[in-house]
Amino acid sequence: MRDNEEGARAAYRVRFDTEPELIGSAPGRINLIGEHTDYNGGFVLPCAINFRVAAAMGQGTGELYSVDFDEARPSGGCKEDSWVDYPRGVAWALADAGYTVGRFQAAFAGDVPRASGLSSSAAIECATGVALNDLFGFGLDYKELARLCQRAENRFVGVNSGIMDQYASLLCRRDAALLIDCRSLEATSVPFRLEESGLSLLVCDTGVERELGNTGYNDRRASCERAAQELSVDLLRDATLEDLDRLRGVELKRARHVISENERVLAAVEALKRSDYAGLGRLMYESHASLRDDYEVSTRELDAFVTIASNYQALGARLTGAGFGGCAIALIADDAVEVLEEAVISRFAEAGFGRPTFYVVQPSDGAEVVQ
Ligand code: GLA
């Protein structure tokens, strides 16, 4: 059992004076490439990471307890802008879809950094989802569960996010990235054996916190919808680079990012299949430039990290997740990681930015129920 699963179990015992019936466990994710494409029906290529949220659960009082916040809240109720909105939202989405969610109690423990673009919200939703699914015997497969968790985020929490985070948290496999076609919702594992390649995936958390609800996320989504409408397509996935001649202003820039990013994801999959990590890295740099210039979701900190990474031999680097703060990733040789970290710390200090935090992550297994 992983540490946070043990932690959730121990907290459950103390809180409820009994053993949990089961423990749902789900990871956060990084996205290798394919940003802001999911809600346009496009392609994404995330990996689950070795940071997770665990939900120790049983039928019972209706109390939910968070180890990380040291706080207990009722499982039912409205949105209240706290951690409990995620498990509550999932219970609501299941009930709304016709599943009978009985009274349950749970203790949550996790180590996914929050508000930094590593999908801590999907991790808590999916840990809750797999646990409730087993506890009440709904028999939902993980793709259906992902859609219900996304619905919880869209309708209960109120962030109009796409399907990437919940799919990644539920369906990723160890040593692999997950190619998701966000229109057909088909998902394919693409082997990504980092350890064998002598490369690391370094995450730099810039410490600039964001909650998607308070950013330009929903606004970006709306401009994509306007662009699709102007081009008379349902989703920007169906538009091509030639179509861009028919757009202007903000819609042109947003659509140019989305259309070119979809092409980069497919090229990245081909590069991974050939173990062409240099090729993958170039696509990551291009993705970042497009997110910075056309999608305008980068920050000075994220841009600085990517520039420093390129000066310190990273094969590729880019912001990961929605942007507006949060994390960037670099694909870099194992023995160059420390030097890059030191350089970033000192350049950030010189620039007056906050102190960044680093994590070396492994492509990891998706959600599961552990007994
Ligand atoms: C957030 C959302 C995802 C996706 C990314 C941007 O993580 O939750 O659905 O849109 O931003 O790629």
Description of the molecule:
It is a single chain. By secondary structure, the chain is an alpha+beta fold. The chain is built from 11 helices and 12 strands. Helix 3 packs across helix 4 (142-157) and helix 10 packs across helix 11 (337-351). The longest helix is centred in the last third of the chain and has 25 residues, at 249-273. Strands 1, 2, 3, 4, 5, 6, 7 and 12 form an 8-stranded mixed sheet that branches. A 4-stranded antiparallel sheet has the order 9-10-8-11. The protein has helices spanning 3-16, 85-96, 120-135, 142-157, 164-171, 194-197, 217-230, 249-273, 277-293, 300-311, 337-351; strands spanning 22-33, 43-59, 63-66, 71-74, 104-110, 176-181, 186-191, 199-205, 316-319, 327-333, 357-361, 368-370. The protein folds into 2 domains: 3-191, Ribosomal Protein S5, domain 2 (2-Layer Sandwich); 194-361, 2-Layer Sandwich (Alpha-Beta Plaits), CATH 3.30.70. The chain binds alpha-D-galactopyranose. Alpha-D-galactopyranose binds next to helix 5. Alpha-D-galactopyranose binds at residues 35-36, 38-39, 161-162, 164-165, 321-322.
